[in-house]
Amino acid sequence: MTPEDAMRALNAAADPTRAADLAARFGEGVYLGVAPTTLEETARDWRQAVAFPERLDLARGLWATGVFDAQLMAAKLLTQARIKEDAEIWAQICDWLELATTWPVIDALSAAGGRRIAADLSKMETVHALVQSERGLDRRAALMLSMPLAKLAHPTDAEKLAIDDVLFWLTYALQDADKDVSRTAETWLKSLGKHDVKRAKMVRRVVQSRASDG
């Protein structure tokens, strides 16, 4: 499959009404308005049909179009739990995170990146750097990339340490002036609280204490 083949398929699934709504929400850009369920189902089919490294080339071709829906698809093509050699894929995800300008694309890339982090926790270094960014989208990306850790019901010792590292800056993310970031941080904490009430309550106490001192 070539990027041209993929774009023809995406164009065939375009919805002008949805595209206009996306343009109104996210500003200038090229939107096809492909339904989320269609994107997800198509991505699943293409992941099965195209193996790496050809799939990475396909994703790059789609990203290069600049089309919103194609960039979502590019991220979804890289969303896979087990990838034998993922260094180049991880690097590409990180590069695209810097270029992404809308939260849906950030979230799609973070879903792909979160799986790479789950396979190698040393990649959390990138997350800790993103959370210090002045750009709100980067701080959201840090939360979304690390979200799989919040959902672990039975984390390993290494994963518990990674969670504790996140909790250090999560207390600040919950008070972020960017409401999009603070809401995402709240989602992170609620996910953690479903199976680790002790840690979640500790974070709440720290935030409340800081608010009282302020």
Automatic annotation (TrEMBL):
<dbReference type="InterPro" id="IPR016024">
    <property type="entry name" value="ARM-type_fold"/>
</dbReference>
<dbReference type="InterPro" id="IPR014825">
    <property type="entry name" value="DNA_alkylation"/>
</dbReference>
<protein>
    <submittedName>
        <fullName>DNA alkylation repair protein</fullName>
    </submittedName>
</protein>
<dbReference type="Pfam" id="PF08713">
    <property type="entry name" value="DNA_alkylation"/>
</dbReference>
